[in-house]
Amino acid sequence: MLYFLPAPLRGVIAGLLLVLNTLFWCWLLFALALLKVVLPFTAVQRLIRHGMHWVAEVWIGGNKAWMNAVSRTQWDVQGLTGVDKNHSYLVTSNHQSWVDILALQYQFNGRMPMLKFFLKKELIWVPVIGLCWWALEFPFMKRHSKEFLARYPEMKGQDLATTRKACERYKTNPVCVFNFLEGTRFTPEKHAAQKSPFRNLLKPKAGGTAFVLDAMGEQLHAIVNVTIHYPDGRPTFWDLLTGNIRKIDIRVEQLPIPPEFIGRSYDQDEAYRTAFQQWVNQLWLDKDALLDRLRQAG
Questions:
Q1: How large is the angle between the packed helices 207-216 and 158-169, nearest 10 degrees?
Q2: CB neighbours (10 Å) of residue 79?
Q3: pLDDT bracket for residue 150 (50, 70, 90)
Q4: How large is the C-alpha radius of gyration of the chain?
Q5: Residues 173-201: pLDDT tens digits?
Q6: Which residue from 15, 36, 204, 277 has the highest number of Cβ atoms inside 10 Å of its Cβ?
Q7: Which of 240, 78, 101 is nearest to 176 (CA)?
């Protein structure tokens, strides 16, 4: 509808619509979050969580509307059949751009339970949206380097405790626990600094996914493995706002959760840790080959 406008004007309008959509719905979300605090009853909190997830889904629907208005992006999505809103899933994907999150929400909204992302603790200070993530019980992680943990060994296991606490709250409602295994967005500079063995990916970090399986493996229906590819290269958020993304390829694969990975301790069981890392590396090798095929097709 807004395709005829100059790209900068489309970007400004889309940005305003995003802000207005967020400000309109955040107050209802905050009110429900406050209600959840003052009514600590399991049945009531389950109902309130349904209401909060509905608010988030309507907000995502509003974002989908302005994305459709400013762009004519071609979506090539395969493998999304078979998922539903009645089961919990562990979802993972490669990570290239901030666009990834809105692209996943665009396609998954209404088809699966709401995606709950692992977020860096610093992101809670993002104006308005940080509080929305907190109200929706997104897990905020404080990542420590190996050097830091060597100096302060008492901090080991903190991420596992945070994951367990978050996953404990997810047992009352179906949920999609989402984790970018790379931990950060792909850039050629990061790829070179890591000396990554993968052509199109950074090295995967298996710990967060293993912690989720440890905390709620029996509750999860399947692992949903997502691969995102942009034929014209990694877009910026401004590209999304201006509608300058020609095509987005998404491939979705449902994988059974290996039973030998359930109920094991990633940080204490060395044999399990090695086996799980090998499984994740094979997952990443397959994803790397898929990205090569998508690039050649594009």
A1: 40
A2: 15
A3: low
A4: 20
A5: 888 999 899 989 999 999 999 999 999 99
A6: 204
A7: 101
